[in-house]
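Pipeline run #58 for the internal structure catalog. This entry was flagged by the ingest filter as a single-chain record with no existing model, so it goes straight to prediction. Upstream metadata was stripped on purpose; only the residue string is passed forward. Reviewer on rotation: M.T. Logging verbosity set to normal.
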Amino acid sequence: MEPGAVSEWEGPLLGSLNSSGILEATAFSRAPALLGNSSYNSSDYSMPFQGSSTMLTAIISLTVFIVGLVGNTLAIYVVLRYAKMKTVTNIYILNLAVADELYILGLPFLTTQNVLSYWPFGSFLCRVLMTADSLNQFTSIFCLTVMSIDRYLAVVHPIRSTRWRRPRVAKVVSAAVWAISFVVILPVVIFSDVQDTFFSCNLSWPEPRDVWSMAFILYTAILGFFAPLLVICMCYLLIIVKVKSAGARAGFTKRRRSERKVTRMVVVIVVVFVLCWLPFYIINIVNVIVILPENSLMVGIYFTVVILSYANSCANPVLYGFLCDNFKQSFRKVLCFRKTNGVEDGDPSVPRTEKITTHDSFLPPRNHEFNGHVQSSQQTLGI
C-alpha cells in the first residue's frame, strides 16, 4: 500500500480498527486492523460488511448473546440456589459463569457499533465495557487454572489437600483471581477510550503506538493464555501419571470414579476454551510479525475469531449440563419448575447439617463450619 493511501477495509468492524496495523487483544478491538499505516480519511471510509452481511453478523451475534445470557444465568442461579451445588469445583464454575455473563453482556454494544459503523455510547461506557471484556479473558483462564490445580490436589494428594479444598478457601481464591485479573488489565482501564480517528471504542495508546500495541499483545498472550495453559498442562500430566501408577490398586473405587468424572468435565471445559481462544491469539501474534492481507477472506476469518470467543461463553453452561449430573438435575428442576419438599435440592445424599443451610448464601451456620459441605462434596461430586 502506498503511503497516505486509504485501505479498502478501513473503519470499524465488529469492534474498531487500530491505526497501528495491529490487532488489539480485547473484544472491542478484535477487528481486522490491517491498515499498514496510520493515515485515515473518513470521507473515503467504506464498510467491509454491508447489507445482508451486516444483518447476518447481527443475527449470529444475537443468537450467541441469548444462548450465553440464558445459560450462564441458569448456571449462576442453580449454584446459588441449591445446597448440594455449593462444592469447591462449583464455586469456581460460579465465578467462571459470572465472568462469561459479563463478557456476553458486551456483545450487543459491539454489534451496535458494527451496524452503525461508530461508537454511540460515550467514553465512560466504552471504558466500562472494555474493562469487563478484558476482565473476562483473564478471569476465565485463571479460574480454569485454579480448577486444574484443584483437580491435581484432589487426585494426586487427596488426603493432604483436604484442609485446602474447602468452599471457604475456594471463595478466597476466587476473590484473589478477580483481584489479580483487575490488576493485570489496568492498561485497558487506563487507555480505553473512543478514538477520534475512527469514532470507535478502542485502546488509545500513547506514542510510539506500534510499540505499545505489540507489547500489549504479547503481554496479554503470555499472561492471559500461554503461561496459564502451561500450568494447566502440567497439572493434567501429573494427574495422568498418578492415575496410571495407581491403576490396579483396590479401595475407594466409587470415590475415584467420582473424581475422574469431575476431572473429565474440567478437562473438556479447558479444551473447549483453548479451541475457542487459540485462533485469536495466533492471529494476534502472526499480525505482530507480518501484516496480514486486506481482503474479504481475512474479514470473514476475523469475524469467526470474534464470534468463537463469545461462543465459548455460551458453550460452558451446555458443557456443565452434559458432563455433570448435579448440574443436569438442577437445570431440569429450574426449567420444569419442579417443587421439592422441605429443601430445594431434595437430594437424600446430602447430610442434614447441610440441608438446613440458607438457600441464598454460600456460608453455613456458624457452628457447622464446612463439614457438611465437605462431606457432600465427597458423596455427590467426589471433590
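catalog note: Residues 209-245 form the longest helix (37 residues).
catalog note: DSSP finds twelve helices and two strands in the chain.
status: ready for reviewer M.T.
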